[in-house]
């Protein structure tokens, strides 16, 4: 499942719901069984460009945007539901990501960069 964060709701499973907003620097996960929320901040300071959940529901990819003139943005892959970071993907674009998606088997991540490069990267 992949979604641009301009679409504010992403269903992770029957138990979890994720809410994010376009170019915000944080997103929210809600556990629908326990009625608890967690707020997770972006790390690169430029906002979140895209999010995706692996087909098995065990991982979340957060593709970020860079602050202009700073280091390139990164993609953070987290375990679900703990949100522990398991991988940091680097050097996939110059300014920010416009999309991120897992392969059908969940073993690879693909991203598309924003202007100026619109680079397609597969990890």
What would you note in describing this structure?
The structure is a single chain. The chain has no helices and twelve strands. It is mainly beta and 123 residues long. The chain has a single domain, classed as 7 Propeller (Methylamine Dehydrogenase, Chain H), CATH 2.130.10. The strands form three sheets. The protein has a five-stranded antiparallel β-sheet with strand order 1-6-7-8-9, with no helix packed on it. It has a four-stranded antiparallel β-sheet with strand order 2-3-4-5, with no helix packed on it. β10 (97-102) and β11 form a beta hairpin. The radius of gyration is 13 Å and the shape is globular.
Task: Write the SSE topology.
Blueprint: E1 2-4, E2 9-11, E3 16-20, E4 26-31, E5 36-41, E6 45-53, E7 59-66, E8 75-79, E9 85-89, E10 97-102, E11 109-113, E12 120-122
Antiparallel strand pairs: 1-6, 2-3, 3-4, 4-5, 6-7, 7-8, 8-9, 10-11, 11-12
In short:
With 123 residues, the protein is mainly beta.
* Outline: globular
CATH structural architecture:
7 Propeller
- CATH level 1 class label: Mainly Beta
Structural class: mainly beta
Instruction: Profile the largest sheet.
Output: 5 strands, antiparallel
Number of domains: 1
Percent in strands: over 45%
Biggest sheet: strands side by side, in what order? 1-6-7-8-9
CATH superfamily: YVTN repeat-like/Quinoprotein amine dehydrogenase
- State the helicity in percent bands: under 10%
Task: Give the CA-CA distance, first to last residue.
Answer: 17 Å
Tally the beta strands: 12
Rg for CA atoms: 13 Å
CATH topology: Methylamine Dehydrogenase, Chain H
């Amino acid at each position: 499942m992949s979604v641009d964060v301009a679409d504010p709701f992403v269903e992770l499973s029957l138990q979890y719901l994720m809410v994010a907003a376009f170019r915000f620097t944080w997103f929210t996960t809600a556990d629908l069984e326990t009625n608890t929320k967690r707020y997770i901040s972006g790390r690169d300071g430029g906002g979140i460009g895209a999010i995706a959940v692996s087909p098995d529901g065990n991982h979340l990819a957060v593709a970020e945007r860079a602050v202009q003139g700073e280091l390139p943005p990164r993609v953070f892959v987290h375990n679900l539901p703990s949100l522990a970071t398991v991988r940091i993907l680097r050097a996939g674009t110059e300014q920010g990501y416009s999309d991120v998606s897992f392969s059908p088997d969940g073993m690879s991540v693909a991203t598309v960069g924003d202007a100026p490069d619109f680079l397609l990267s597969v990890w």
